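In the design runs reported in the main text, the only information available to the sequence generator was the tokenized backbone. The following block is the verbatim input for one such run; it is reproduced so that readers can re-run the procedure and compare outputs position by position.
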């Protein structure tokens, strides 16, 4: 599989190149050129296959030129010591009981930072480690975080050979738990606490990437969410989920994806392009409803984001829309045929968390709850086609959003063991001014 840019289809890059560059030289996103037909392989996967084994067997089919079966074994087994889980939930809603459809949650929050971004980050780390070992080279990942996404990257790259990670975060502006997740690892993970805002952190990272002296002396690379090496493995859990459905459920299976930057949905659509027989997708958003509106009206109107309870989805101009659109060749009608857009209010989200706690005794995080609500509405409001099974993606552990879950249910969900463990570890961070010069000095001194 080779990659081109969403902005210039004459550009061509290998997987290895696309992974280390992150962004295409023309500012577009890397996107697969070939569409392999892997339907028979997908249908051969049994429910007993572990997620790591399934990933291992997919890789050589997708990247015959870059990943040998032996390398696939090392990458997949190192990347995925954790696995998704598929759980059926019940709903007391009258309208739902008229249909035969089941709703299942695909739990993607059993990794080290308890959110689905662990899958992409962990795979990218394993791939980079493999490629760098091959080249006997060393790289420094430089990244800025406003809190949440940085922890998936930090955990994913922790103890990887040939790689150091430098993470900038705004001092006093991340939650105490987030700060612990970023600063307690040590080893090859270097946390820089910046006296400034998240925008300062982002500016410093951008300026460091174009600094001639730094690029001469250090192999700097990014691991941000638009990297194709983070997108590809997200397609794997749709395939894994499908393998874990009954024959009947597979006949009419719809995936509902709580979306912000639309990476997760794009990955699902890629799996479908490669032959996964999915009936349709639901793009579920909060009031930042640029894509649902596009699907309804055919006009794409990006705008500033609005703050909501599902804040990892507060995106007003989703970067992966370029990729989605290019999969459907910019054809709005075709995209709407395969993707329904449903947006959900904060009140509905809170009500859904409360309702599932009261009736089923389960805690949902706000992002997952939003997806469940969109799934229910797909059934209640009679969208077509009617599914046999709705698989709604569970994107974060409820223990990551204690305040919101408590507001909805009056109860505190349990903190997952992975998060509990960091609370008592000492913080290790270097405090720096919001100046690129200081960042540069740190990098030159350490690498
Ligand atoms: C990042 C994130 C999302 C949105 O995913 P996209 O790929 O950006 O659409 C949803 N839920 C949670 C918990 C997230 O962290």
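Verbatim output:
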């Amino acid at each position: 599989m080779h990659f081109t840019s969403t902005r210039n289809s004459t550009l061509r890059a290998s997987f290895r190149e696309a992974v280390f560059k992150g962004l295409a030289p023309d500012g577009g996103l890397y996107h697969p050129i070939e569409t392999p037909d892997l339907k028979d392989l997908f249908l051969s996967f049994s429910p007993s296959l572990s997620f790591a084994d399934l990933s291992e067997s997919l890789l050589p089919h997708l990247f015959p030129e870059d990943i040998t079966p032996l390398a696939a074994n090392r990458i997949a087994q190192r990347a995925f010591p954790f696995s998704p889980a598929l759980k059926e939930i019940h709903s007391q809603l009258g309208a739902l009981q008229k249909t035969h459809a089941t709703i299942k949650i695909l739990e993607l929050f059993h990794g080290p930072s308890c959110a689905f971004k662990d899958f992409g980050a962990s795979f990218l780390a394993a791939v980079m480690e493999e490629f760098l070992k091959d080249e006997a080279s060393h790289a420094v990942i430089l990244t800025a975080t406003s809190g949440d996404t940085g922890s998936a990257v930090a955990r994913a790259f922790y103890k990887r050979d040939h790689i150091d990670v430098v993470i900038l975060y705004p001092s006093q502006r991340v939650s105490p738990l987030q700060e612990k997740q970023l600063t307690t690892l040590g080893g090859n993970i270097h946390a820089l606490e910046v006296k400034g805002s998240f925008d300062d952190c982002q500016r410093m990272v951008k300026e460091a990437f174009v600094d001639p002296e730094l690029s001469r002396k250090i192999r700097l690379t990014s691991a941000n969410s638009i990297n194709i090496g983070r997108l590809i493995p997200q397609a794997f859990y749709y395939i894994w989920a499908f393998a874990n459905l009954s024959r009947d459920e597979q006949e009419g299976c719809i995936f509902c994806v709580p979306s912000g930057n639309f990476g997760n949905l794009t990955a699902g659509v890629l799996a479908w392009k490669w032959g996964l027989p999915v009936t349709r997708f639901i793009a579920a958003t909060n009031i930042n409803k640029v894509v649902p509106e596009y699907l309804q009206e055919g006009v794409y109107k990006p705008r500033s984001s609005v703050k909501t309870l599902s804040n990892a989805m507060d995106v007003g101009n989703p970067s992966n829309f370029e990729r989605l659109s290019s999969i459907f060749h910019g054809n709005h009608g075709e995209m709407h045929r395969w993707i329904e857009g449903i947006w959900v209010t904060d009140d509905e989200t809170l009500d859904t968390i409360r309702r599932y706690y009261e009736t089923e005794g389960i805690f949902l995080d706000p992002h997952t709850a939003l997806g469940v609500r969109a799934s229910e509405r797909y059934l209640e409001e009679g969208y077509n086609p009617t599914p046999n099974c709705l698989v709604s993606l569970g994107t974060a552990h409820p223990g990551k959003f204690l305040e919101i879950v408590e507001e909805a249910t009056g109860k505190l969900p349990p903190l997952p063991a992975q998060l509990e463990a960091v609370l008592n570890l000492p913080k290790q961070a270097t405090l720096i001014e919001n100046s690129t010069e200081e960042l540069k000095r740190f990098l030159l001194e350490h690498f």
